[in-house]
Design brief:
The chain is mainly alpha-helical and about 55 residues long. The mean pLDDT is about 85.
């Protein structure tokens, strides 16, 4: 994750967080409730952050 953070710093994008899912096949992640909840929470934070910047 540090490497991704460095990339974001380099291109001037704020790193807000990450989500790690534990599935192998496409679409299996849709059955992982914890990852979906984390994605929903991150999405809400990003939307709020975006709205505050305007």
């Amino acid at each position: 994750m540090d490497q991704f953070r460095y990339i974001c710093d380099f291109i001037g994008v704020e790193f807000k967080g990450y989500i790690i899912g534990e599935r192998v096949k496409p679409q299996e992640i849709l059955n992982e409730e914890k990852a979906l909840e984390e994605a929903d929470q991150l999405n809400r934070r990003l939307l709020i952050s975006s709205a505050l910047e305007k």
